[in-house]
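re: that chain from earlier
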Amino acid sequence: MTAMPFIKHDAARDWFLPAMVLLLFVLAVASLASGEVGMTPARLWAGLTGADEVASTIIWQLRLPRVITALLVGSALSTGGLVMQAYFRNSLASPDLLGVSSGSAAGAVVAISAGWTAIGLWVLPITAVVGAAVATFGVLALAKRGASSERLLLAGVALNALLGAVTSYVLSTGVVLYERNAQLLFWLLGGLEDRTWLHVWAALPVVAAVVLVWPLGRQMDLLSLGEREAQSLGVEVRGLRRRMLVLATVLAATATAVAGIVGFVGLVVPHAFRLAVGPEHRRLVPLCVVGGATFVLACDLAGRMAGGLRLGIVTALVGGPFFLWLLRRRA
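^ sequence. v structure.
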């Protein structure tokens, strides 16, 4: 896909990553300073260094884990979306549109409703990964290699409906305790409230997955030419696709397990950068890592300033119109 008209040369595109890093830093500082207890830059610094005990407790125990979780979730969803688009060679593919996020959500819902989360911290991410894997292989079964955009979207719609029915059934049964039902509803809306350092630890597999995605950039570029062309250029296509599928599933499932259902990040961020800087994945991967973190942190901050809107609602308000614009643009 071609770059935006106002990007004239590669030198201009090289400013994207530093600009996104700077914006991410500004948003992180704003997020740490915002809340019921507002903080001036001086008090924020005192809290970070431990000079102000009250500010230090607020920052280190409440706000910083939320910010770091937002960074990890945003990076995971956007990078997973980029890998999914490369896998299907379709710029409209994303974890939430193709049922992967719904699958991880269904797995996590079952774990919460059954009380398995009391066993340990890692139960929720594991069940989310299992649910995402089931959804992923369902997409592969319904939309085989070379499938059109319409077939992929229809497969995603079918799986989302099926997995949504599973989730609704669990919520509607009387065997679920009221406390767990409230937890499920809270989690299904997607959000970063009450995130702790335990959630940060649970999201750390994202870092390893992202590190493993970046070296695949050149091979993903060749795969975009077609499987036969990539094979003739030395790419072991079957192994590459297997690694991509595993990485995208782990990224989407881990993010969903930690923050609930946060839609459209995997579609909006990779597609926006693809329009801006072109299709080269070695350039897109770091941009998606930083850009996804920036997008989620900005949406979370906007939701807090709007009176406590959940993160999943804000990303849907941004991503829904963007997706409709993409459909109209491709028509």
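The domain at 90-261 is CATH 1.10.3470.10 (ABC transporter involved in vitamin B12 uptake, BtuC).
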